[in-house]
Write a structure and sequence with these properties.
6-stranded mixed beta sheet; 4-stranded antiparallel beta sheet; 9 helices; 12 strands; ABC transporter ATP-binding protein; AAA+_ATPase; ATP-binding; ABC_transporter-like_ATP-bd; P-loop_NTPase
Length: 256
């Protein structure tokens, strides 16, 4: 079993920001949440994390209603990397990553050896071992994002939720971060704006508009010129690479 949403809706202040959406990732799959600004991507991630309760429908973890699962248990299974991960405190990279072990701590302090091993593995997976003692705020944007992914990995989750993790990164770091994420042995749901990045790295995609799901499936099946025109209001040509993944070229100045 895994984390899934079953026709969930969320009415926030009288506005339906998620409207009857279902999502059931396969274990180990990378699912891209796509859609224009305000389509409900971040709101759906908050429901999946259990930060807010759905107005209708159910988010379940291993078949159990998430609202009935203790938060510590949720935090051991589900890790989140937000859009604007930042800290005002002068923490080293290691200290940032160690925050991921908090769900595993007990009133007796937890297992120090297990904590150290998890942090070391997370640093190694994200290529940050040699920067562990540096201050987080002195890293590049891409390195800072990798540090927060390492913090999430130190939780040793089965599910990873990422909200636009490539926001404000240059092309190289966008590719580095998504390549890292898709190689991790976890089930991942990632909100993205860039359709070409979604086509490159996601196994399946779910397209949202005004809180509703309008298409779901493989990038090749979903990312068609017709859907892009309908959802984004942009004309596009869609080719395919040798592996069948779509490559999208936008047509500037063409009305749809």
């Amino acid at each position: 079993m895994t984390l899934d949403a079953r026709t969930v809706s969320w009415d926030r202040g009288g506005r339906l920001v998620v409207d009857g959406v279902s999502l059931a990732p396969a274990p180990g799959e990378t699912v891209g949440l796509l859609g224009p600004n305000g389509s409900g991507k971040s709101s759906l991630l908050r429901l999946l994390d259990g930060v807010v309760r759905p107005t209708a429908g159910v988010v379940a973890l291993d078949g159990r209603d998430l609202t009935r699962v203790p938060r510590r248990e949720v935090a051991r299974a589900v890790a989140v990397v937000g859009q604007h991960a930042a800290t005002e405190v002068d923490l080293t990279v290691r200290e940032v990553v160690e925050l991921g072990r908090l769900p595993h701590r007990t009133s007796f302090g937890g297992d120090r050896a297990a904590d150290e091993a998890a942090v070391a593995e997370a640093l190694a997976r994200t290529g940050l071992t040699d920067k562990a003692e540096q201050l987080w705020r002195r890293l590049s944007g891409g390195e800072q994002q990798r540090a927060h992914i390492a913090r999430a990995l130190a939780q040793q989750p089965r599910e990873l939720l990422l909200d636009e993790p490539t926001n404000h990164l240059d092309i190289r770091h966008q590719l580095d971060v998504l390549d890292l994420v898709t190689r991790l042995p976890v089930t991942t749901v990632v909100a993205l704006h860039d359709l070409n990045l979604a086509a490159m790295f996601c196994d399946t995609v779910l397209v949202l508009r005004a809180g509703r799901a309008v298409a779901a499936g493989t990038p090749a099946a979903v990312l068609t010129p017709e859907l892009i025109a309908d959802v984004y209001g942009v004309a596009a040509e869609v080719g395919h690479d040798a592996e069948g993944r779509p490559s999208i070229r936008y047509r500037v100045g063409v009305r749809v």
